[in-house]
From TrEMBL:
Recorded catalytic activity of this chain's protein: thymidine + ATP = dTMP + ADP + H(+)
Taxonomic source organism: Amblyomma americanum
Enzyme Commission number: 2.7.1.21
Pfam families in the record: TK
Quaternary structure (record): Homotetramer. Tetramerization from dimerization is induced by ATP and increases catalytic efficiency due to a high affinity for thymidine. Interacts (via the KEN box) with FZR1.
Catalytic EC class: transferase
Family: Belongs to the thymidine kinase family.
Any one GO BP annotation for this protein: DNA biosynthetic process
Keyword Acetylation: no
Keywords assigned: ATP-binding, DNA synthesis, Kinase, Nucleotide-binding, Transferase
A GO term, aspect molecular function: ATP binding
Name this protein carries in UniProt: Thymidine kinase
Amino acid sequence: MAAVKATALSNLRDRSSEFRVIGIDEGQFFPDIVEFAEDMAEAGKVVVIAALDGTYQRQGFPSILTLVPLSESVIKLSAVCMLCYAEAAYTKRRGQEKEVEVIGGAEK
């Protein structure tokens, strides 16, 4: 199954009837994620969301923190230290950008 690009999840509501499972990546960047996830779960869909729970400044993403008590299960993964490869509690931005959302690929 191919991924579907979206800037707002509400744009996908009409297509949701085609699927039993809905996977969302980078959930922290969708402003309507809480409402969409609740609606889809109430419609009997399995909703899987991959998201950061906090910024590189260790500030929470409110929408993701709102989803935690609504979720049937939560799996929290650790960061990895790029110096010693041990588990790390937080992510660290490698660039100098100050914005919370920075678009980039392998070069970042």
